UniProtKB/TrEMBL annotation:
GO MF term list: phosphate transmembrane transporter activity
Coiled-coil features, chain-numbered ranges: none
Similarity annotation: Belongs to the inorganic phosphate transporter (PiT) (TC 2.A.20) family.
Protein name: Phosphate transporter
Family annotation (InterPro entries): Phos_transporter
Lineage of origin: Bacteria, Pseudomonadati, Pseudomonadota, Alphaproteobacteria, Rhodobacterales
């Protein structure tokens, strides 16, 4: 009779020692705890962001109270400062994504690096080059004489501020980059209509703004596609790509430097001096030519030892793309922060002086609230829209993202010269769509040529699968652009009625 094999007293039925099994069990338990902690952090992170944003809003209100404590009706200023801070946070969460999204999507910048650069340059643009004076009735939408009574004017500006901020918050939540300026314009229009009637609105100006819904993205998309076509023809399809890069990349960087110098002279130097378009173009040309001569040896040195293939060329566009993102943020801070805090500055003036004015000075503390709010909003809530703009509309690389950035600067210059009202948000996003649709067109040409060679075309399902632009984002963003002005106008009108009813 054969006895079953015996096992040592210090082993389990599977042959392992109790101590080993205990460690395995402990590892499993620890892994579950880690997973629960990660899940808790994922759920709690939005709550932390909301908490920090609320603290900033409260601090803004307290600061306004301390600064204007002796002013009659100072509580109105405190409330306006809180809503102004809320507005600035939403601008940072939504509008700044258009400047940083392409650079992040092209992997020229990490998300953390993009947030840091944007926060620094947005704040610098607002405080260094931000306008001292701002139009209280944004863009001449409403006749100032129609809301000359200080009390009505204050509630109209408060309603516009609240409506624009809420709309930007909604747009960020659904992942739609919209125009800050259009949000303010819609808010002013809605409150103006409820305060003084339809005749108070400057409808020809509103018509121009409606036209910019088409003009801005189309111009941005066409310029971006043309630049990408040029790069493909002169660099990517060249037989000796390195030699072509040494010739053309310095020239392209020079064009970018000229465009941004002109753009900043027009949009970012208003606090220092008023520069007209011809002078701005001459400044841009001088800086562009100097940049070409400076970058030629740098590009030659950087391209030494590179392989003769497309992937190698992407490295040459990384640094120019980072610089362009920083400059766009500076110009945005200089130009758009003043628009954002315009209603707050108007309320402070009306409450402090008891009258209204078509244009008012922006106090430094108001500008600090705007700049600080944008930085907080960008860091706390901006990553979602940065990722969407940078990688979810179409695939970007440094060359494609460079075309988008250059298109944004040149489109603003062209529009300024023609007197066309355009939105920097619409231009940047339009540039991304332009790059994507150009790539689709190129892919379609290749597919047709391949089908002719093989004797059979691609099936419709396969052609649909190869689309390079996400149509869902195209429709969502387009709809949000069209709805922005009427939505903020309706919301602002309702808020104005509520404020007049409950506040008197």
């Amino acid at each position: 009779m054969t006895l079953p094999p015996t096992r040592p007293a210090d082993t389990t039925p599977d042959g392992a020692s109790p101590s080993i099994n205990q460690w395995k069990t402990l590892d499993k338990d620890l892994k579950r705890i880690v997973q629960l902690e990660e899940a808790g952090q994922f759920v709690g992170r939005p709550l932390i962001s909301i908490g920090v944003a609320l603290v900033f809003i409260v601090v803004a209100g307290v600061a306004a109270s301390l600064i204007t404590g002796g002013t009659p009706n100072s509580l109105v200023i405190v409330a306006a400062a809180a809503f102004g801070a809320y507005m600035a946070i939403n601008i940072g969460a939504n509008d700044v994504a258009n400047n940083m999204g392409p650079a992040v999507g092209a992997n020229a910048l990490t998300l953390t690096g993009a947030l840091a650069i944007a926060a620094i340059f947005e704040t610098a643009g607002a405080l260094i080059a931000g306008g001292d004076v701002v139009s209280t009735i944004s863009g001449g939408i409403v006749d100032p004489a129609s809301v000359a009574e200080a009390g009505i004017f204050v509630w109209a500006m408060m309603a516009a501020l609240i409506a624009a901020a809420v709309w930007l918050n909604i747009a960020t939540a659904i992942g739609a980059p919209v125009s800050t300026t259009h949000s303010i314009v819609g808010g002013v229009m809605g409150a103006g209509i409820m305060a003084a009637g339809m005749s108070a609105v400057n409808w020809p100006v509103m018509g121009q703004i409606a036209a910019s819904w088409v003009i801005s993205p189309v111009l941005g998309g066409v310029f971006a596609a043309l630049f990408l076509a040029f790069i493909k023809n002169r660099l990517l399809d060249a037989e000796d790509k390195i030699a072509a890069a040494r010739l053309w990349v310095p020239l392209l960087i020079g064009v970018m430097a000229a465009a941004f110098a002109t753009y900043l002279a027009l949009k970012g130097l208003r606090k220092v001096m008023e520069v007209q378009l011809p002078a701005a173009v001459m400044i841009g040309l001088a800086i562009g030519v100097a940049t070409v001569f400076l970058t030629r040896p740098l590009v030659r040195r950087q391209s030494e030892g590179m392989e003769n293939r497309k992937k190698s060329l992407k490295k040459l566009f990384g640094l120019p793309l980072v610089v362009s993102a920083a400059l766009l943020s500076f110009a945005h801070g200089a130009n758009d922060v003043a628009n954002a805090v315009g209603p707050l500055a108007a309320i402070v003036h009306a409450v402090s002086n008891g009258d209204t004015a078509a244009r008012v000075a922006i106090p430094l503390w108001v500008m600090i609230i705007g700049a600080g709010g944008i930085s907080f909003g960008l860091v706390l809530f901006g990553p979602k829209l940065i990722r969407m703009v940078g990688s979810e509309i179409t695939k970007l690389n440094p060359m494609r993202a460079y075309c988008v950035a250059l298109s944004a600067a040149i489109t603003v210059i062209v529009a300024s010269g023609l007197g066309l009202p355009v939105s920097s948000t619409h231009i940047a996003v339009g540039g991304i769509f332009g790059v994507g649709f150009y790539r689709e067109w190129q892919a379609e040409r290749r597919s047709r040529a391949l089908g002719l060679i093989k004797g059979k075309p691609l099936p419709p399902d396969e052609r649909k699968r190869r689309k390079l632009v996400r149509r869902a984002h195209f429709l969502t963003i387009g709809a949000a652009w069209v709805v922005t002005v009427p939505a903020t106008a309706l919301l602002s009108g309702a808020v104005f009625v509520a404020l007049r009813t409950f506040a008197g």
